[in-house]
Design brief:
single chain; alpha/beta; six-stranded parallel sheet; 19 strands
Amino acid sequence: MAETIGVISLGCAKNLVDTEHMLAALDDAGYRVTGEIENTLAVVINTCGFLSSARAEALENIAEVAALKSEGKVQKIIVCGCLAERDRETLFEQAPEIDALVGCGSYHEIAEVLKKTLEGNRVTAFGELTAEPLEASRLLTTPQYFSYLKIAEGCNNRCSYCVIPSLRGEYRSRVLEDVVAEAEGLAQSGTRELIVIAQDTSRYGTDLYGKRALPELLGKLCQIEDLKWIRVHYLYPDEIDDALIDVIASEEKIVKYLDIPIQHVSDRILTAMNRRGDHQYLDELFTKLRARIPGLVLRTSLIAGLPGETDEEFEELCDFLSRHKLERVGVFPYFREPGTVAAELPDQVPEDIKEHRCELIMNLQDRIMEAFHQSRIGTEVEVLCEGYDRYAEAFFGRSAADSPEIDGKVFFTAKEKCSIGAFVNVKITEDLDGDLFGERI
């Protein structure tokens, strides 16, 4: 059997960066890493443990690899990340085929863990979360033209429904110079779109420098010549100040697309969630953002059915969406996560009501998105070309209004071949039910 290591990365972009760090560590140790899992020396599965659906997906992947192990097509299974951290006491029992568990404080130990498992040991590695190095080499898995840039690890927000602080530890910013140096290296290797991520990007620098340093960081990133687009995700609303707004509005390279998870707008529900700010603050914030950043596209995530959520509070949320017309919205039914404060709250909302409320929000959001897409017909947009679709007989890519993996695409015809990673101008002619269609100018 060839000495190759199969790797599966589940969950968010932040998790993907951790996977890329492990890939580099395995590569440095002399292993050949691949996305294929059959006929491998071992399979490393980096898991998400945030939501029940994510845990179910992780267990399904583990079961699939375990089946290959029973057929002799995989020798060892190493489960890493949030699910391993969360279920360290029971995961071996749930899946006896697992050979090693690696928590979120021990990603850097992956090569040593693999070595020990190949020697016939069952291994656990659960280092202190805050001791995991923030600086490490990466083996990129994204297309050459875009990369994620993780600027911090952990979270201090302690939302009542969320287990992330217990899985990832306290908030820890990377040194600004280290972040800029990594971004420069990514640009030199072909990155044109840089996506800035963390559990909370807007808090960046507060632990290191005693102030919000994201505006300064973004300003330095914009000075990197080869970067074309800089996209910012996961801004906690009450950390967004005028200095940050000014940088986003004034810097041409920063795409006018902000991901600001608000979860809800009812004052009582926000308090129960242990979220800072209230309805009035969110109302004023989004109004100010629209006024000061022309052409802004806003993304948010919401939770429907937190314990005690009334019909009136849910309608308040819907009314907020109707008034502010956020272009990108994801909504999740509240799940009773063991070990969280919200899990112990009274008046748990029945599952069917939570699901129905999510459906109502998405129906509302479909109408908002349709109106947004209709408004773009006849306009010219810059598109990052990502490939050619033989079925559609058209090229496809993303505009500044579309983040990879989560938003739609722009399909377009062109009289000549369009290179992957190239930026082209497209005139939008049609709305394709969530995607757009046009022709290259």
